[in-house]
Amino acid sequence: MFNTPFVLSFALLLSLPLLFFFAPRFLPPKHAQIPLPDELDDLALFRRATLASIRPGGSAVSRLGTTKSKPKIAFLFLTNSDIHFAPIWQLFFNNHLGLYNIYIHADPSSKITPPGGVFEGRFIAAKRTQRATPTLISAERRLLATALLDDSLNSYFALVSPSCIPLHSFQFMYNSLFIKPITESTSSSSQISTPLYRSFIEILHDDPYLKDRYISRGKDVMLPEVPFNRFRVGSQFFVLTRQHALVVIKDRRLWRKFRLPCHNLDSCYPEEHYFPTLLSMEDPHGCTHYTLTRVNWTGSTDGHPYTYGPAEISSKLIRELRVSNSSYSFMFARKFSPDCLQPLLDIAEKVIFRD
After folding, report:
1. Which CATH number fits domain 34-52+69-183+194-293: 3.40.50, 1.10.287, 3.90.550, 3.30.1360?
2. Which of 5, 67, 122, 222 lies 20 to 30 Å from 347, alpha-carbon distance?
3. Pfam families, per this entry (predicted)?
4. What residue spans define the domains of the chain?
Protein backbone atom coordinates (compact mmCIF):
# COMPACT_ATOMS: atom_id res chain seq x y z
CA MET A 1 0.00 0.00 0.00
CA PHE A 2 2.28 2.79 1.28
CA ASN A 3 6.00 2.64 0.87
CA THR A 4 8.13 2.89 3.99
CA PRO A 5 9.74 6.32 3.31
CA PHE A 6 6.30 7.85 2.83
CA VAL A 7 5.00 6.39 6.11
CA LEU A 8 8.07 7.56 8.04
CA SER A 9 7.85 11.08 6.60
CA PHE A 10 4.15 11.31 7.37
CA ALA A 11 4.68 10.05 10.95
CA LEU A 12 7.47 12.57 11.50
CA LEU A 13 5.27 15.38 10.26
CA LEU A 14 2.52 14.40 12.68
CA SER A 15 4.96 14.10 15.59
CA LEU A 16 6.37 17.62 15.29
CA PRO A 17 3.49 19.35 17.11
CA LEU A 18 3.70 16.73 19.87
CA LEU A 19 7.45 17.26 20.13
CA PHE A 20 7.06 21.01 20.60
CA PHE A 21 4.37 20.43 23.20
CA PHE A 22 6.14 17.83 25.32
CA ALA A 23 9.81 18.75 24.85
CA PRO A 24 9.83 21.51 27.49
CA ARG A 25 8.65 18.94 30.03
CA PHE A 26 11.53 16.56 29.44
CA LEU A 27 14.42 18.71 28.27
CA PRO A 28 16.37 20.88 30.74
CA PRO A 29 15.70 24.64 30.59
CA LYS A 30 18.22 26.17 28.21
CA HIS A 31 18.93 29.14 30.47
CA ALA A 32 19.94 26.82 33.32
CA GLN A 33 22.84 25.23 31.45
CA ILE A 34 26.36 26.31 32.36
CA PRO A 35 28.30 27.17 29.19
CA LEU A 36 31.29 24.92 28.55
CA PRO A 37 33.77 27.86 28.38
CA ASP A 38 32.63 28.97 31.85
CA GLU A 39 33.07 25.44 33.17
CA LEU A 40 36.59 25.18 31.71
CA ASP A 41 37.56 28.59 33.12
CA ASP A 42 36.41 27.50 36.55
CA LEU A 43 38.29 24.20 36.40
CA ALA A 44 41.50 26.04 35.53
CA LEU A 45 40.94 28.46 38.43
CA PHE A 46 40.24 25.60 40.85
CA ARG A 47 43.41 23.79 39.82
CA ARG A 48 45.52 26.92 40.35
CA ALA A 49 43.97 27.52 43.76
CA THR A 50 44.51 23.90 44.80
CA LEU A 51 48.15 23.90 43.72
CA ALA A 52 48.77 27.24 45.44
CA SER A 53 47.44 25.78 48.69
CA ILE A 54 50.12 23.08 48.73
CA ARG A 55 53.41 23.93 50.37
CA PRO A 56 56.71 22.95 48.78
CA GLY A 57 57.32 19.35 49.74
CA GLY A 58 53.72 18.31 49.36
CA SER A 59 52.18 19.14 52.75
CA ALA A 60 48.91 21.04 52.63
CA VAL A 61 48.51 24.43 54.26
CA SER A 62 46.56 24.00 57.51
CA ARG A 63 42.97 25.11 57.78
CA LEU A 64 44.11 28.21 59.68
CA GLY A 65 46.88 29.17 57.29
CA THR A 66 50.37 29.71 58.70
CA THR A 67 51.20 30.39 62.33
CA LYS A 68 53.76 33.15 61.68
CA SER A 69 51.16 35.78 60.83
CA LYS A 70 47.65 36.34 62.03
CA PRO A 71 44.97 34.45 60.08
CA LYS A 72 42.43 36.44 58.07
CA ILE A 73 38.73 36.25 57.34
CA ALA A 74 37.78 36.40 53.65
CA PHE A 75 34.41 38.08 53.13
CA LEU A 76 32.71 36.87 49.96
CA PHE A 77 29.95 39.08 48.57
CA LEU A 78 27.64 37.46 46.02
CA THR A 79 25.47 40.06 44.34
CA ASN A 80 23.49 41.15 41.30
CA SER A 81 22.70 44.59 42.74
CA ASP A 82 24.42 47.51 44.45
CA ILE A 83 25.94 46.85 47.86
CA HIS A 84 23.64 49.35 49.57
CA PHE A 85 25.07 48.73 53.03
CA ALA A 86 28.68 49.37 52.05
CA PRO A 87 28.90 52.29 54.56
CA ILE A 88 27.91 49.91 57.39
CA TRP A 89 30.52 47.38 56.30
CA GLN A 90 33.08 50.18 55.97
CA LEU A 91 32.59 50.98 59.68
CA PHE A 92 32.74 47.25 60.47
CA PHE A 93 36.14 46.87 58.80
CA ASN A 94 37.65 50.13 60.13
CA ASN A 95 40.98 49.81 61.96
CA HIS A 96 41.32 46.09 61.22
CA LEU A 97 43.49 46.20 58.12
CA GLY A 98 45.49 43.01 57.75
CA LEU A 99 42.86 40.80 59.36
CA TYR A 100 40.44 40.52 56.45
CA ASN A 101 40.06 40.46 52.68
CA ILE A 102 37.03 41.25 50.52
CA TYR A 103 35.96 39.57 47.28
CA ILE A 104 32.89 40.53 45.27
CA HIS A 105 31.21 38.40 42.60
CA ALA A 106 28.83 40.71 40.72
CA ASP A 107 26.67 39.42 37.88
CA PRO A 108 28.22 41.06 34.76
CA SER A 109 24.76 41.53 33.22
CA SER A 110 23.68 43.77 36.12
CA LYS A 111 24.39 47.48 36.26
CA ILE A 112 26.15 47.89 39.59
CA THR A 113 27.66 51.03 41.02
CA PRO A 114 31.05 49.98 42.45
CA PRO A 115 31.36 51.01 46.12
CA GLY A 116 34.53 52.79 47.16
CA GLY A 117 36.56 52.58 50.34
CA VAL A 118 37.54 49.06 51.38
CA PHE A 119 35.50 47.63 48.49
CA GLU A 120 37.44 49.39 45.78
CA GLY A 121 39.17 46.98 43.41
CA ARG A 122 37.72 43.91 45.12
CA PHE A 123 35.57 42.66 42.21
CA ILE A 124 36.62 39.26 40.87
CA ALA A 125 36.21 37.84 37.36
CA ALA A 126 32.52 36.92 37.37
CA LYS A 127 30.01 35.00 35.26
CA ARG A 128 26.25 35.33 34.92
CA THR A 129 24.09 33.97 37.71
CA GLN A 130 20.43 33.05 37.89
CA ARG A 131 18.20 32.03 40.74
CA ALA A 132 17.26 28.33 41.05
CA THR A 133 20.18 27.29 38.83
CA PRO A 134 23.64 25.81 39.52
CA THR A 135 25.20 29.08 38.35
CA LEU A 136 24.99 30.21 41.99
CA ILE A 137 27.05 27.21 43.08
CA SER A 138 29.62 28.10 40.42
CA ALA A 139 29.77 31.71 41.62
CA GLU A 140 30.34 30.68 45.23
CA ARG A 141 33.02 28.16 44.26
CA ARG A 142 34.62 30.88 42.14
CA LEU A 143 34.71 33.22 45.14
CA LEU A 144 36.27 30.53 47.34
CA ALA A 145 38.91 29.66 44.76
CA THR A 146 39.83 33.30 44.16
CA ALA A 147 40.20 33.92 47.89
CA LEU A 148 42.28 30.77 48.36
CA LEU A 149 44.56 31.76 45.51
CA ASP A 150 44.85 35.40 46.55
CA ASP A 151 46.07 35.07 50.14
CA SER A 152 47.38 32.01 51.99
CA LEU A 153 46.39 33.65 55.28
CA ASN A 154 42.70 33.58 54.39
CA SER A 155 41.56 31.02 56.94
CA TYR A 156 37.81 31.51 57.26
CA PHE A 157 35.56 32.29 54.29
CA ALA A 158 32.32 34.13 55.08
CA LEU A 159 29.70 34.27 52.32
CA VAL A 160 27.30 37.22 52.63
CA SER A 161 24.73 38.95 50.42
CA PRO A 162 24.24 42.66 49.67
CA SER A 163 21.17 42.59 51.94
CA CYS A 164 23.25 41.31 54.89
CA ILE A 165 24.44 43.49 57.75
CA PRO A 166 26.90 42.69 60.55
CA LEU A 167 25.40 42.27 64.03
CA HIS A 168 28.64 42.66 66.01
CA SER A 169 31.95 44.44 65.77
CA PHE A 170 34.69 42.94 63.65
CA GLN A 171 36.82 42.30 66.74
CA PHE A 172 33.99 40.36 68.39
CA MET A 173 33.61 38.13 65.34
CA TYR A 174 37.35 37.64 64.89
CA ASN A 175 37.82 36.67 68.54
CA SER A 176 34.85 34.31 68.38
CA LEU A 177 36.32 32.46 65.41
CA PHE A 178 40.02 32.43 66.29
CA ILE A 179 40.54 33.24 69.96
CA LYS A 180 37.70 31.16 71.37
CA PRO A 181 37.29 28.23 69.02
CA ILE A 182 35.12 25.22 69.80
CA THR A 183 37.10 22.85 72.00
CA GLU A 184 37.03 19.12 72.57
CA SER A 185 38.95 16.76 74.78
CA THR A 186 41.97 15.08 73.21
CA SER A 187 40.89 11.73 74.67
CA SER A 188 38.05 10.24 76.66
CA SER A 189 40.17 10.20 79.84
CA SER A 190 41.98 13.50 79.36
CA GLN A 191 40.83 16.79 80.83
CA ILE A 192 42.96 18.74 78.35
CA SER A 193 41.00 20.40 75.55
CA THR A 194 42.41 21.36 72.19
CA PRO A 195 41.16 24.02 69.75
CA LEU A 196 38.85 22.69 67.08
CA TYR A 197 38.02 24.97 64.17
CA ARG A 198 34.81 24.03 62.40
CA SER A 199 32.80 25.40 59.53
CA PHE A 200 29.56 27.20 60.29
CA ILE A 201 27.11 25.85 57.76
CA GLU A 202 23.53 24.75 58.25
CA ILE A 203 23.06 21.05 57.48
CA LEU A 204 19.51 19.68 57.76
CA HIS A 205 18.26 16.15 57.21
CA ASP A 206 14.67 16.65 58.41
CA ASP A 207 13.42 19.46 56.19
CA PRO A 208 9.71 18.85 55.42
CA TYR A 209 10.34 19.41 51.70
CA LEU A 210 13.48 17.28 51.55
CA LYS A 211 12.01 14.70 49.15
CA ASP A 212 10.69 17.35 46.75
CA ARG A 213 14.06 19.04 46.71
CA TYR A 214 15.86 15.76 46.13
CA ILE A 215 13.80 14.85 43.04
CA SER A 216 13.67 18.40 41.63
CA ARG A 217 16.05 17.34 38.82
CA GLY A 218 14.15 14.12 38.16
CA LYS A 219 13.54 10.80 39.90
CA ASP A 220 16.74 8.84 40.63
CA VAL A 221 18.87 11.39 38.76
CA MET A 222 21.11 11.94 41.81
CA LEU A 223 22.00 8.26 42.08
CA PRO A 224 24.38 6.64 42.74
CA GLU A 225 26.56 9.50 44.00
CA VAL A 226 23.87 11.07 46.20
CA PRO A 227 21.40 8.59 47.71
CA PHE A 228 18.39 10.18 49.38
CA ASN A 229 19.57 9.29 52.89
CA ARG A 230 22.78 11.31 52.31
CA PHE A 231 21.05 14.34 50.78
CA ARG A 232 21.08 17.48 52.94
CA VAL A 233 19.81 21.06 52.69
CA GLY A 234 20.57 24.28 54.55
CA SER A 235 21.10 28.02 54.42
CA GLN A 236 22.88 29.54 51.44
CA PHE A 237 25.22 31.56 53.67
CA PHE A 238 28.16 29.98 55.45
CA VAL A 239 31.53 30.54 57.13
CA LEU A 240 33.92 27.81 55.98
CA THR A 241 37.39 26.87 57.17
CA ARG A 242 40.21 26.81 54.65
CA GLN A 243 40.19 23.02 54.75
CA HIS A 244 36.54 22.90 53.72
CA ALA A 245 36.96 25.60 51.10
CA LEU A 246 39.53 23.31 49.48
CA VAL A 247 37.11 20.38 49.69
CA VAL A 248 34.58 22.45 47.74
CA ILE A 249 36.85 23.50 44.89
CA LYS A 250 38.39 20.02 44.56
CA ASP A 251 35.03 18.32 44.20
CA ARG A 252 34.13 16.91 40.79
CA ARG A 253 32.02 13.88 41.76
CA LEU A 254 29.01 15.59 43.37
CA TRP A 255 29.26 18.60 41.08
CA ARG A 256 28.40 16.37 38.12
CA LYS A 257 25.01 15.80 39.75
CA PHE A 258 24.30 19.21 41.20
CA ARG A 259 25.20 21.02 37.97
CA LEU A 260 22.21 19.36 36.28
CA PRO A 261 19.35 21.78 35.67
CA CYS A 262 16.12 21.55 37.65
CA HIS A 263 12.72 20.65 36.25
CA ASN A 264 10.76 21.69 39.34
CA LEU A 265 11.99 25.21 40.06
CA ASP A 266 9.67 25.60 43.06
CA SER A 267 11.71 23.03 44.99
CA CYS A 268 15.15 23.67 43.58
CA TYR A 269 17.70 25.88 45.30
CA PRO A 270 20.97 24.24 44.17
CA GLU A 271 23.33 26.27 46.35
CA GLU A 272 21.26 25.38 49.44
CA HIS A 273 21.62 21.68 48.59
CA TYR A 274 25.13 21.26 47.21
CA PHE A 275 27.27 22.70 50.03
CA PRO A 276 25.43 21.00 52.95
CA THR A 277 25.38 17.65 51.11
CA LEU A 278 29.04 17.79 50.08
CA LEU A 279 30.38 18.78 53.50
CA SER A 280 28.06 16.40 55.30
CA MET A 281 29.45 13.57 53.18
CA GLU A 282 33.08 14.63 53.43
CA ASP A 283 33.40 15.86 57.02
CA PRO A 284 30.17 15.97 59.06
CA HIS A 285 32.01 16.33 62.39
CA GLY A 286 34.03 19.22 61.04
CA CYS A 287 30.88 21.31 60.64
CA THR A 288 28.71 22.88 63.33
CA HIS A 289 25.55 22.17 61.26
CA TYR A 290 24.30 25.71 61.95
CA THR A 291 24.82 29.06 60.27
CA LEU A 292 26.02 32.40 61.68
CA THR A 293 23.58 34.34 59.48
CA ARG A 294 20.14 35.08 60.93
CA VAL A 295 17.26 34.94 58.43
CA ASN A 296 13.60 35.53 59.26
CA TRP A 297 11.41 33.18 57.24
CA THR A 298 8.18 34.32 58.89
CA GLY A 299 5.95 35.80 56.21
CA SER A 300 8.34 34.81 53.39
CA THR A 301 7.13 35.23 49.82
CA ASP A 302 8.20 33.45 46.63
CA GLY A 303 11.12 31.81 48.40
CA HIS A 304 12.44 35.12 49.75
CA PRO A 305 12.76 35.76 53.50
CA TYR A 306 11.10 38.55 55.41
CA THR A 307 12.54 41.99 54.59
CA TYR A 308 13.00 44.51 57.39
CA GLY A 309 12.04 48.12 56.72
CA PRO A 310 13.43 51.37 58.20
CA ALA A 311 10.63 51.71 60.76
CA GLU A 312 11.69 48.40 62.33
CA ILE A 313 15.33 49.32 62.92
CA SER A 314 16.07 49.63 66.64
CA SER A 315 18.55 48.54 69.29
CA LYS A 316 15.97 45.97 70.42
CA LEU A 317 15.84 44.42 66.94
CA ILE A 318 19.65 44.11 66.79
CA ARG A 319 19.76 42.41 70.19
CA GLU A 320 16.97 40.01 69.16
CA LEU A 321 18.69 39.13 65.89
CA ARG A 322 21.90 38.21 67.69
CA VAL A 323 20.26 35.51 69.81
CA SER A 324 20.77 31.94 68.59
CA ASN A 325 20.17 28.43 69.90
CA SER A 326 23.87 27.59 69.65
CA SER A 327 26.87 28.59 71.73
CA TYR A 328 27.68 31.24 69.13
CA SER A 329 25.79 34.47 68.59
CA PHE A 330 24.53 35.26 65.09
CA MET A 331 27.14 37.44 63.36
CA PHE A 332 25.09 38.61 60.34
CA ALA A 333 21.43 39.14 59.50
CA ARG A 334 19.31 39.56 56.40
CA LYS A 335 17.21 40.75 54.70
CA PHE A 336 17.07 44.57 54.92
CA SER A 337 15.61 47.01 52.41
CA PRO A 338 18.06 49.61 51.02
CA ASP A 339 16.28 52.46 52.81
CA CYS A 340 17.35 50.93 56.14
CA LEU A 341 20.85 52.32 55.60
CA GLN A 342 20.47 55.62 57.48
CA PRO A 343 18.60 54.17 60.48
CA LEU A 344 21.30 51.49 60.73
CA LEU A 345 24.08 54.07 60.53
CA ASP A 346 22.36 56.03 63.32
CA ILE A 347 22.75 53.09 65.72
CA ALA A 348 25.94 51.54 64.32
CA GLU A 349 28.50 52.84 66.82
CA LYS A 350 26.31 52.79 69.93
CA VAL A 351 24.50 49.51 69.31
CA ILE A 352 25.67 47.27 66.46
CA PHE A 353 29.41 47.57 67.11
CA ARG A 354 29.14 47.79 70.90
CA ASP A 355 29.18 44.15 71.94
Report:
1. 3.90.550
2. 122
3. Branch
4. 34-52+69-183+194-293
Describe the chain by its helix, strand, coil percentages, rounded to 5: 40, 15, 45
List pLDDT tens digits, range 280-290.
999 999 999 99
Length of the chain: 355
| pLDDT score for 4 | 52
Q: How far apart are the first and last CA of the chain?
A: 89
Model pLDDT for residues 53-103, shown as the tens digit of each residue: 886 443 344 444 444 689 999 999 999 999 999 999 999 999 999 999 999
User: How many C-beta atoms surround the C-beta of residue 21 within 10 A?
Assistant: 9
Distances (CA, A) of 247 to 62, 107, 283: 13, 25, 9
Q: 214-232, pLDDT tens digit by residue?
A: 999 999 999 999 999 999 9
Collapsed DSSP state (helix, strand, coil) of residue 45: helix
Residues 6+ away with beta carbon under 8 Å from 129: 78, 80, 105, 107, 135, 136, 138, 139
Residue type at position 48: R
234 vs 189, more confident: 234
d(CA 66, CA 84): 34
Comparing 66-80, 119-133, 160-174, which segment has the lowest mean pLDDT?
A: 66-80
Question: ∠ CA 207-281-78 to the nearest 5 degrees?
Answer: 70
The 10 Å Cβ neighbour count of residue 315 is 12
